[in-house]
């Protein structure tokens, strides 16, 4: 037997072992405990190639099958891939349609399942990779501030105002929005509100009108007729 034939025979034997592993419903660390370094490398290559071909629910099932043997770095890479695909799909679909896309539309655009997209939206803020991305943006803040200062120094008043706001020299004007207005009058210790007035009967309203009308006439007399 030549060395080339022996190599091919060895590769075939390794692949057969890998195929038997992938036929399992769930692969555990115990299942791969006795694999040689070459066999582990073959398993990693095979799972990577398989994962790249799968979409939707089939991809979810395969990831669930190999979840227990995936290194933390690989899981992190999968999350980053999903995050990039979802973010990119939202940007593209919003540009084309002008509205926030549905999860079904995102799933069709990315090839990810709705379940994966739902999980990603529900838990992305607590994901270490997302927190790391936010820290990267914060890390770049001084560079952006330097660019704002550059334009402000050139006479751009908007950039100057933005710069002063960013460094805390001036503060944005706070706008208070009144959502509701409650009108009422207080007589000694009694408060009469609009809601109270609505509950009065016609006779009670007439009685109040008879009391107030003479007072209002004295304070605001009717104009004299010529």
Give a verbal description of the structure:
The chain is mainly alpha-helical. The chain has 11 helices and 2 strands; from the N terminus they run H-H-H-H-H-H-H-H-H-E-E-H-H. It has a two-stranded antiparallel sheet with strand order 1-2. Strand 1 (184-187) and strand 2 form a beta hairpin. The termini are far apart.
Describe the protein's topology.
Elements: H1 3-22, H2 37-53, H3 56-66, H4 72-97, H5 103-110, H6 114-123, H7 128-139, H8 141-153, H9 157-167, E1 184-187, E2 190-193, H10 194-198, H11 202-219
Antiparallel strand pairs: 1-2
In short:
The protein is mostly helical and 226 residues long. Among the domains are: 7-70, no CATH class; 71-127; 140-167. It contains eleven helices and two strands.
The residue-averaged pLDDT reads: 79
Q: In which range does the helix fraction lie?
A: 55-70%
Helices, by number, come to 11
Strands ordered across the widest β-sheet? 1-2
Q: Which regions contain 5 or more consecutive residues with pLDDT less than 50?
A: 1-10, 176-180
